Amino acid sequence: MKTNKQKYKDTFASLTCIEPIKVEEKTMKKQHKISLAFAMSALVLVLSGGTICYANDVGGIRTIVTSWFEGKQTQIEAVDDGDLGYNFYKENEDEPFMGGGGVAFENGKEVKLSAEDVLEANARYVDKKEDGTIMVYDHDLALDITDYIKDGQAKLIVSREGEDIYWNIEVDDNSVSVETNPNKPLDADQYVRVQ
């Protein structure tokens, strides 16, 4: 992964002036001072303009998004993958921990989802830890559901902010499969409420 300095250089390396800058020396002192002041002001504007472009991420260098991750609000770096998605990086990590994307339809046209929307859509998930612990994450909730898994399956009701979400979870040695539903399913009597 490139450093910010390298990304900055790559982004601004192709910038060129539209017209050549002409510097003329005038013999009148008053005009010379005004020209020098004008040149210094122009230089300050050009340099600050580059800094503003970098700070506002005009070149697509990076986007920092605050989102829910493992039950805590976390700042995550989102890097556009050049297609319809993003790669997401934790602070001080070179490898993405997640990728995702999608589109919405506005006035009949496909519009790429923002990084914030992609992370919000993934704020509910199940994670199997290296020690075998199974965790449910739903925004600010972090629940250990290991004891609820029977024969690799669990049907749970998780309540957050007064809303019940029905979780149908399947776990095996290599993967986790999750379905969430805000509507009461036909087999709701098979679900167990957890908190």
TrEMBL record:
The identity of this protein, by name, is Uncharacterized protein
Q: Which organism is it from?
A: Dubosiella muris
